Amino acid sequence: MATAYAVILAGGRGERFWPLSTHQRPKQFLTLFGGKPLLQQAVERLEGVIPPERTLVITSADLVPLTCEVLPALPVENVVGEPCGRDTAAACALACALVERRDPDGVVCILTADQIMRDAPAFRRTLADAIAVAAAHEVIVTIGIAPTAPATGFGYIRTGARFETNADTAFMRVERFVEKPDLDTAQRYLADGRYLWNAGMFIWRTQVMRRALATFAPVLDALCDRIVGASPGAAEAVLGEAYPDLKKISVDYAVMEHADNLVVARGAFGWDDVGSWTSVADHLPADADGNTVVGTCQALDAAGNIVVAEEGRVVALLGVSDLIVATRGNVILVCHKDRAQDVKKLAHQIGDARGGTSPRGS
Amino acid sequence: MATAYAVILAGGRGERFWPLSTHQRPKQFLTLFGGKPLLQQAVERLEGVIPPERTLVITSADLVPLTCEVLPALPVENVVGEPCGRDTAAACALACALVERRDPDGVVCILTADQIMRDAPAFRRTLADAIAVAAAHEVIVTIGIAPTAPATGFGYIRTGARFETNADTAFMRVERFVEKPDLDTAQRYLADGRYLWNAGMFIWRTQVMRRALATFAPVLDALCDRIVGASPGAAEAVLGEAYPDLKKISVDYAVMEHADNLVVARGAFGWDDVGSWTSVADHLPADADGNTVVGTCQALDAAGNIVVAEEGRVVALLGVSDLIVATRGNVILVCHKDRAQDVKKLAHQIGDARGGTSPRGS
To answer: How many A/B residue pairs have CB atoms within 8 Å?
Structure first.
């Protein structure tokens, strides 16, 4: 049977957990959930399915040192930096080429760096089944998540006919990818039962993916050729040359929505993309007043707040509710829970203020 | 004419501006209003009326060093520490005795350490007139404040017949002192026109006060005798011995409410006791969204907040309103404006937490 390789896409710049996450230390390095960086958890949860030697990480070039630091188990050559971000289509092509250089018959597992999976054993079973299906069939496998709520923040996959396998996991043909829905539509999807969340995980044999790239994204297929053909040590130069000219496009748009050989595995392993500060309350215990606290907080008549205080800081709450209070370094964020999605905006505003004209105040 | 001495009562432990003010650094040391400690402003605004050599400060013994530090213009012997707090009756008796030791015919001006007077020249005129009246008549003079709002946080003075003087300031007989009123009563007082705020400022000749003490508080009169009679350097020992046994009582209750020779000067000089965090918005300019900011703050869709950030800190507000956010050292206070009066309670709760069992959180 073909050998499986994990390629974790860790190029995200998520600043929605600002000031804890920043452009220089994005969400995959957060230790808020599980006490270890999310990226480290992403590698460790592969244990028994894919070893560190066959686990690669694609991140942005400037994050390579920090990435190596939090992943001491990975050979340093397994951490690959992109010269610039060109979305997931380029990253998947790069993943394909990197594996193909090592093993032309390899199975590539495109995985994510900054998500939570509460039931790691269930995830491993699903992934192992997906690898087996990708190895045995001429299909691209994606892992969809059985929805647990009418989420409007994810894209959905509409499943079709059952794909016959011997696996324990349910595999279905992908009928189509659908965009992030409004709430009404999401509720309909949830009730329907045929829809799964698109979690951005794809499993394929390199040759299967190369055929899809050749058909739907020939520029990326050509890039693969150049990388695979590059002499040892020259691959980086190829990236530096080719990347800036690539179109920024997701692999969903560039390939997956067009391919007809897509199969989706139904995953149910407590997945969440912990997309914003309000996720903290979903994944950490709250006190009797519904305050979720990481660090030190004293509260008087305060309820439903999320507090994340750095070591050595004390947050004191009095008569406030539904706030997010987060401190890191010199920054103190005080945000209404309803506005958690806009934290990034404010982070950029502050970035401007600190780099440019002086902020208001005395 | 008799010589005037200022005695500034600075024994307050105000923690209503916590975390900026603390038990060890109470409100009179706040630099929030006017950029200098309120206590220093209290001394400086006497310029031209009472010089630093004749300005004394009574504070608690442990605050003497800090008090001397912020008042370099004062001779160190003018800063007197009480061994324990026994409210204003004891402090006024001490003030009386300290002045009497220097000048048996002195006029004592009991003043406050932690209030704002926006119109210092007007205050000086009122004070000079009050000194002249106290020097010329057998009366205790108090300065009442012409109310500008139906305040429920102050006691009031009901004025009676005009007291004939040649001063520019209006002097009236005090008819009676009244307790902090409820809002309805305060509105009635404001409309009535005969009521002034009791601001805790009293001006008297030592001998006039001694007669009042002998009549209404003989224990304090006896204390005065002991202090006045003590040999140089022995006064401190007298305080240490006598103070712990004194009753905790305000000079209003102990003397002023009983004396029939009280006269009140009508003061109008932008007085405020800046009693809590919400005062910040009354005395400092706000931005277009009604946010009052000291320090560095970036706000997005935030209105009506009060932010006081230490040097080097950035407070980021997103979608919040009517909050007080104040940082000092490791403490970050996030408080609804409506609860500003309870900050002291929370400060004590934190004090307990930091000194005793560990606060909740990881």
So the answer is: 143
